[in-house]
Amino acid sequence: MFGFAVIGALVAGLYGMLHDQITYTISPEYFTKLKFAQFHYANFGFPRRVFVGEVGFLATWWVGFFAAWFLARLSVPKWPIRQAFQYTLAGFGIIFGSAMVAGIIGGELGYYRRSNPDFSGWQDYAVMNGVRDLPAFVNVAYIHNAGYLGALVGLIAALGYLKCKKSQTLPRGEQSANNCV
């Protein structure tokens, strides 16, 4: 199970690195005014885009670690290791897809928010931290928050998928009425 969790951490970390490269392009200030301060300990003086990648990895590896561990808790005891790996990988695909779709939806909502520019709830933060392009900053905040929410929804769906698969695996001769997608 630990091995599955490590693989999940690596996959999620790589996803975070790519994700943050994209969102940095939308709003560098989200990183320079927020994320870089949160992850200051990881700044080793490399170019800014490398630091963005570090931040992306550090912000997401733990999500993949725990998600894969939970999935493995259902799959490893039930199936042979190859089958458990396949089902866990399918579950991780559900989480990844859900996080990605949610991030896109968050991005669209954030972009839509730009057309209705009432950022009064963000003004104090923007002034206090010197944020100049508040619409882009808010857009990226929507993307990041939606992505985490999507990962949580995906984890719940993936656990349901594995539980359904688990209930289908009955002793020889017995039929299951459950149909998992």
Number of domains: 1
The proportion of residues forming helix, as a percent range, comes to over 70%
**Tally of DSSP helical segments:** 6
| CA radius of gyration | 20 Å
How far do the termini sit from each other? 24 Å
Q: Classify the secondary structure makeup into a structural class.
A: mainly alpha
Low-confidence stretches: none
Helix/strand layout:
Elements: H1 2-26, H2 28-38, H3 48-75, H4 81-115, H5 120-129, H6 134-168
Explain what you see.
With 181 residues, this protein is mostly helical. The chain has one domain (2-168). The protein is built from six helices and no strands. It has helices at residues 2-26, 28-38, 48-75, 81-115, 120-129, 134-168. The longest helix is centred in the middle third of the chain and has 35 residues, at 81-115.
List keywords for this structure.
181 residues, mainly alpha, 6 helices, elongated
Please sum up the structure shown:
This protein is mainly alpha-helical. It contains six helices and no strands.
